[in-house]
């Protein structure tokens, strides 16, 4: 198992991460423009992955978008903006977020802290801590770290669903030519649309 260097954010960094993600979403949805991070907090110059998740609060709720990368050469501020825009576009869940939804969605960010390449996923995977990325060369996909706890999945089911997300057979995580990456991060989320921010300990 190999591990990348750790990235740590404090609460103020996380607060700004969610604010920046929402600003980028609103700028894209309302004006078709890419938000610029502007003068960034020191932590936002680090080069690490960022994921953005958009969830609807209407009705029974649904995922409206989720995008990003667990590894990138971009500075964190720009990675957040890029992830937010992709999450709000029709490249994510098939339909672009529209302006009428902005006050009924909750935005969360996962700032990647550690990346581990594992050859024993079942042993190394910690539910509620790790996101899972599956890479089979021409096919790949990942799932957000909080998802298995929210859905009461076992570690095996989590791995199988990550494989399906990558458009692979559910047991592909056991194949020698398939790379399984576990990543943990700092997750910050709006408690309600445009509301206060909570730090989810992973």
Q: Top keywords for this entry?
A:
single chain, 5 helices, 202 residues, 27% helix, eight-stranded antiparallel sheet, alpha+beta
- Radius of gyration, rounded? 16 Å
Strand content: 25-35%
Main structural class: alpha+beta
Low-confidence stretches: none
Number of helices: 5
Would you tell me the overall average pLDDT?
90
User: In sequence order, what are the helices and strands, one letter per element?
Assistant: EHEEHEHEEHHEE
Which of globular, elongated, flat, extended, rod-shaped describes the shape? globular
Main sheet specs: 8 strands, antiparallel
Beginning-to-end CA distance, first to last residue: 20 Å
Topology, pairings included?
Elements: E1 2-3, H1 11-31, E2 50-56, E3 62-69, H2 76-88, E4 105-118, H3 121-124, E5 131-135, E6 140-143, H4 147-151, H5 155-165, E7 179-190, E8 197-200
Antiparallel strand pairs: 1-4, 2-3, 2-4, 4-7, 5-6, 5-7, 7-8
Helix pairs in contact: 1-2
Describe the protein's architecture and organization.
There is one protein chain. Strand 2 and strand 3 (62-69) form a beta hairpin. The mean pLDDT is 90. Helices cover 27% and strands 28% of the residues. By secondary structure, the protein is of the alpha+beta class. It starts with a strand and ends with a strand.
Briefly say what this structure is.
The protein has 202 residues and is α+β, with helices and mostly antiparallel strands. The chain contains five helices and eight strands, in the order βαββαβαββααββ.
């Amino acid at each position: 198992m190999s591990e990348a260097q750790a990235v740590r954010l404090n609460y103020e960094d996380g607060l700004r991460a969610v604010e920046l993600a929402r600003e980028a979403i609103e700028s894209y949805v309302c004006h078709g423009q890419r938000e610029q991070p502007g003068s960034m907090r020191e932590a936002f110059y680090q080069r690490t992955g960022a994921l953005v998740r958009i969830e609807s609060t209407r009705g029974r709720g649904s995922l409206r978008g989720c995008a990003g990368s667990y590894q990138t050469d971009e500075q964190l501020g720009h990675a957040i903006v890029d992830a937010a825009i992709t999450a709000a576009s029709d490249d994510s869940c098939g339909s672009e977020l529209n302006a009428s939804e902005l006050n009924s969605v909750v935005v969360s960010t996962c700032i990647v802290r550690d990346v581990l390449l594992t050859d024993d996923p079942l042993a190394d995977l910690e539910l509620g801590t790790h996101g899972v990325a599956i890479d089979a060369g021409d096919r790949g996909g990942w799932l957000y770290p909080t998802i298995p706890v929210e859905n009461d999945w076992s570690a095996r089911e989590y791995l199988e669903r990550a494989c399906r997300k990558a458009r692979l057979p559910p047991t592909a995580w056991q194949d020698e030519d398939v790379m399984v990456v576990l990543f943990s991060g700092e997750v910050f989320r709006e408690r309600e649309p445009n509301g206060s921010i909570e730090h989810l300990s992973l």
